[in-house]
Amino acid sequence: MDQLPPYPTYKDCGIPWLGSVPDHWQLLRSGRLFREVNDTGHPSLELLSIDRFKGIIRQADTGRKTRASEDRSLYKRIRPGELGYNLMNAFMGSIGISPQEGILSPAYAVATPVKPMNSRYYHYLLRTPVYTTEFNRCSYGIMYERNRLYYERFKTIPVPCPPVEEQTAIADYLDFNAALVSLFVRTKRRQIEILNEQRTALAKALLAQATANCSLVRLRFICSKFGSGVTPRGGATNYVEAGVPFLRSQNVHFGELRLNDVAYIPIPTHESMSGTHVRSGDVLLNITGASIGRVCAVPPDLGEANVNQHVCIIRPIVNSLDARYLAVCLSLPSMQDEIYMSQNGASREGLPIERLKSFAVPLPSMRQQRDLVKDLEAATGHITQAISAANSQIDHVRNFRTRLVADVVTGKLDVQSAPIDLAEAPIGVIDAGEDMADEAEPLLDEVEEVAVGNE
Known about the structure:
Blueprint: E1 10-12, E2 20-22, E3 26-29, E4 34-36, E5 48-51, E6 55-58, E7 76-78, E8 83-86, E9 95-97, E10 102-104, E11 108-113, H1 119-125, H2 129-138, H3 151-154, E12 158-161, H4 164-210, E13 216-218, E14 223-228, E15 244-247, E16 252-253, E17 256-257, E18 263-265, H5 267-272, E19 283-286, E20 295-297, E21 306-307, E22 311-316, H6 323-331, H7 333-341, H8 353-357, E23 360-362, H9 366-409, H10 444-454
Parallel strand pairs: 15-21
Antiparallel strand pairs: 1-2, 3-12, 4-11, 5-6, 7-10, 8-9, 8-11, 13-23, 14-22, 15-18, 16-17, 19-20, 19-22
């Protein structure tokens, strides 16, 4: 980002939250660029959805059940290049330009361009934090969690309008940058996968040696609690800047609880969810979604916390089972296979709690359990550090990407001085995809927050 210069001259656009824009850019209300359309009666067209990471995609590609009504006569047609957004969740990033023709739920707004433009530029612009915050401010309803961004409000929101050729240069640059980021993240994830395999192999060997003569005991007999939480009504609208950590499946990783992107809920909300208060010495296990099976022990310094419905709290009985030892057992390939095979039905909806209770682990003495964990930590400390470093690098690149997009689409940086030469791209970039969304791990947590917000 330091290599991109600012524009030569700027002007105050008169909008405090947008600031200055390049002197030659226009500023227009959204209604001057887009016109709302309600083109219904096309039930045979493909059903589309709006993902907060990817934008508008095929419903079949979301990896979740189709919630659409059998009667799709009122569903709205959207064409390539047209804008669609979720009335209730535009503030979460559920907005984008459609790459294909299809139909969207009546809960979405559809608008068609009325001026020459490169719509990909507006796909990037309208998904930046400055605009999702403005969407939230412009939404209204009978109560906060029922707020909607009606088109009558959306069309009053001001947007910058660079010349069309400049819009194209910006969109091309950001597409190319997204592919670079995607390739970087994919490479780091592969490194993490290999490191986890090494750590698992060491754990398996140490555990086999330490528990050779131990009996297997079902978890129901050595744990006092099994239970998952809920997403508060209104979904992410309940989140606050500071409060009680609300742990979701993206926070639970093998061997560690990652809090870099943790959500927070108000203390009264936490108190109303008393059945899922997290304690030091608990084990957290992801029981749904793409990350099912990821498991870790709760660190002693976490303090107050709660979980949503995709994370199960397992509470070992004191002096019978060590949480760190249990997390090691549950992370072994044999147990991971059992978790995967125990999911409900062909649709793989999740791990039933009753099935989890029947899982059996070898049970040496508490001293032996703690010694095994100590030995494992000593043997794999360097691996754990390498995994943490790789995850930090991924977080850093994603944060950089978010800042870059915001600065480029609002004119803080000029990409025209950085022409894209695909011939000089690193091998693999062209096939890495136009959007880093595939690397953003849009877990079921995020899907559920959107769904809860729509209830």
